[in-house]
Amino acid sequence: MPTKRLQFTDWLPDQPSNAGSIIDAKNVYPVSVGYAPFTSAENYSGAASENLNSVFVARYGDDVAVFAGGATKLFNLNNTTLALTDVSKLADMVDWYMELSIW
Prior knowledge:
1 helix, two-stranded antiparallel ribbon
Protein backbone atom coordinates (compact mmCIF):
# COMPACT_ATOMS: atom_id res chain seq x y z
CA MET A 1 0.00 0.00 0.00
CA PRO A 2 1.53 3.36 -1.02
CA THR A 3 2.09 5.99 1.62
CA LYS A 4 1.40 9.67 1.27
CA ARG A 5 3.13 12.39 3.26
CA LEU A 6 0.79 14.93 4.87
CA GLN A 7 2.01 18.45 5.52
CA PHE A 8 0.75 19.97 8.75
CA THR A 9 0.96 23.69 9.40
CA ASP A 10 1.25 25.35 12.79
CA TRP A 11 -1.71 24.84 15.07
CA LEU A 12 -3.09 28.34 15.73
CA PRO A 13 -6.52 27.97 17.36
CA ASP A 14 -6.70 31.66 18.32
CA GLN A 15 -6.48 32.89 14.72
CA PRO A 16 -9.53 33.81 12.62
CA SER A 17 -10.85 31.16 10.25
CA ASN A 18 -10.07 33.29 7.18
CA ALA A 19 -6.36 33.81 8.01
CA GLY A 20 -4.23 33.50 4.90
CA SER A 21 -7.19 33.60 2.53
CA ILE A 22 -7.88 37.35 2.28
CA ILE A 23 -6.46 38.92 -0.86
CA ASP A 24 -7.93 42.43 -0.61
CA ALA A 25 -9.28 43.88 2.65
CA LYS A 26 -11.08 47.22 2.34
CA ASN A 27 -12.14 49.70 5.02
CA VAL A 28 -10.27 47.82 7.74
CA TYR A 29 -6.97 48.05 9.58
CA PRO A 30 -4.74 45.18 10.71
CA VAL A 31 -4.84 43.98 14.32
CA SER A 32 -3.02 41.08 15.98
CA VAL A 33 -5.70 38.50 15.11
CA GLY A 34 -6.92 39.67 11.71
CA TYR A 35 -8.62 42.92 10.73
CA ALA A 36 -10.91 45.40 12.48
CA PRO A 37 -13.36 47.79 10.79
CA PHE A 38 -13.06 51.54 10.92
CA THR A 39 -15.82 52.85 13.16
CA SER A 40 -16.81 55.70 10.84
CA ALA A 41 -15.54 57.94 8.07
CA GLU A 42 -13.74 61.11 9.12
CA ASN A 43 -12.89 64.26 7.20
CA TYR A 44 -9.15 64.62 7.62
CA SER A 45 -8.20 67.35 5.18
CA GLY A 46 -9.58 70.18 3.15
CA ALA A 47 -11.58 69.36 0.04
CA ALA A 48 -9.81 68.39 -3.17
CA SER A 49 -10.93 69.74 -6.54
CA GLU A 50 -11.65 66.17 -7.76
CA ASN A 51 -12.39 62.75 -6.33
CA LEU A 52 -9.31 61.07 -4.87
CA ASN A 53 -8.45 57.55 -5.98
CA SER A 54 -5.44 56.75 -3.82
CA VAL A 55 -3.21 58.00 -1.03
CA PHE A 56 0.53 57.50 -0.52
CA VAL A 57 2.44 58.26 2.68
CA ALA A 58 6.23 58.56 2.76
CA ARG A 59 8.48 59.01 5.76
CA TYR A 60 12.09 60.13 5.83
CA GLY A 61 13.44 60.51 9.37
CA ASP A 62 10.99 62.79 11.16
CA ASP A 63 9.50 64.18 7.93
CA VAL A 64 6.21 62.71 6.71
CA ALA A 65 4.72 63.52 3.31
CA VAL A 66 1.18 62.57 2.30
CA PHE A 67 0.20 62.55 -1.37
CA ALA A 68 -3.28 61.92 -2.76
CA GLY A 69 -4.05 61.29 -6.41
CA GLY A 70 -7.15 61.84 -8.47
CA ALA A 71 -7.84 61.00 -12.09
CA THR A 72 -5.87 64.00 -13.40
CA LYS A 73 -4.19 65.68 -10.42
CA LEU A 74 -1.73 64.96 -7.64
CA PHE A 75 -2.16 66.65 -4.26
CA ASN A 76 0.21 67.15 -1.33
CA LEU A 77 -1.19 67.38 2.22
CA ASN A 78 0.10 70.19 4.40
CA ASN A 79 0.54 68.44 7.77
CA THR A 80 0.01 71.68 9.72
CA THR A 81 -3.06 73.20 8.05
CA LEU A 82 -4.41 69.91 6.56
CA ALA A 83 -4.91 71.72 3.24
CA LEU A 84 -4.45 69.86 -0.05
CA THR A 85 -2.20 71.60 -2.58
CA ASP A 86 -2.26 70.68 -6.27
CA VAL A 87 1.32 69.67 -7.13
CA SER A 88 0.57 68.33 -10.61
CA LYS A 89 2.98 69.44 -13.31
CA LEU A 90 1.90 67.88 -16.58
CA ALA A 91 4.03 70.14 -18.78
CA ASP A 92 7.23 69.43 -16.82
CA MET A 93 6.80 65.67 -16.47
CA VAL A 94 8.98 64.79 -19.47
CA ASP A 95 11.90 66.90 -18.22
CA TRP A 96 11.44 65.55 -14.68
CA TYR A 97 11.44 61.96 -15.90
CA MET A 98 14.56 62.49 -17.99
CA GLU A 99 16.39 64.14 -15.08
CA LEU A 100 15.31 61.36 -12.70
CA SER A 101 16.46 58.63 -15.07
CA ILE A 102 19.96 60.15 -15.28
CA TRP A 103 20.48 59.68 -11.54
